[in-house]
Write a structure and sequence with these properties.
Blueprint: E1 9-10, E2 16-17, E3 40-42, E4 45-47, H1 73-76, E5 82-84, H2 86-94, E6 98-101, H3 105-109, E7 112-113, E8 117-118, E9 137-140, H4 144-156, E10 161-164, H5 167-173, E11 178-179
Parallel strand pairs: 5-10, 6-8, 6-9, 9-10
Antiparallel strand pairs: 1-2, 3-4, 7-11
Length: 180
């Protein structure tokens, strides 16, 4: 019978037959009926299974297909910014820390934290020069996602930023000073 790729043989009927242990590597052990594939050399001699190539020192561990990470992403990746309470933000603002309201013009005019500087989030990349490089920046919004996006931009630019938890809504609810 002619030999076909991967060890399968052809019968007279023209059909392929599955490889047998004679055409494949030998089974793993006496009680195992599976074949382990072709024998290949390893560091310790001959083995029934080819091992993965050695990994560089310090490389991240590999996950098997379908495996799940055991730690949440937030524990693996260090946050680039903090989120602080409105009380802490008010105290820091009294100590000279700049508060930036990243809401749009209309939202800002409807009321903002007293003393807040206004830079809409979409203008922030072009107005980074207005922010102090030596002091942290407090970011205020009504949407946490908008303040987080601004904080990530500032952190990527080398500035220290914190978002204010709850934003302007929480600021108002706590009775902190508002300007129109």
């Amino acid at each position: 019978m002619p030999v076909i790729a991967s060890g399968a043989t052809s019968s007279r009927s023209g059909r392929s037959t599955a490889p047998t242990s004679a055409t494949r590597g030998a089974p793993c052990g006496s009680s195992c009926s599976r074949s382990c594939g072709p024998k290949v050399p390893s560091r310790s001699g001959w083995s029934g299974v080819r091992s993965a190539p050695p990994r560089p020192q310090g490389a991240a561990p590999r996950l098997r297909k379908g495996a799940v990470m055991s730690s949440p992403y937030s524990k693996i990746v260090k946050k680039k910014f903090d989120s602080i309470s409105v009380e802490a933000a008010l105290a820091q603002q009294h100590n000279g820390v700049l508060m930036v309201d990243v809401r749009n013009d209309q939202e800002f005019m409807e009321g903002h934290a007293r003393g807040a500087h206004h830079i809409p989030v979409h203008e922030l990349p072009h107005r980074l020069h207005e922010l102090p490089a030596d002091l942290p920046v407090l970011l205020m919004s009504d949407q946490n996602a908008r303040a987080r996006a601004a904080a990530e931009l500032l952190a990527a630019s080398g500035l220290v930023a914190s978002t204010v938890e709850g934003g302007i809504r929480e600021w108002r609810a706590k009775g902190h000073p508002i300007e129109m």
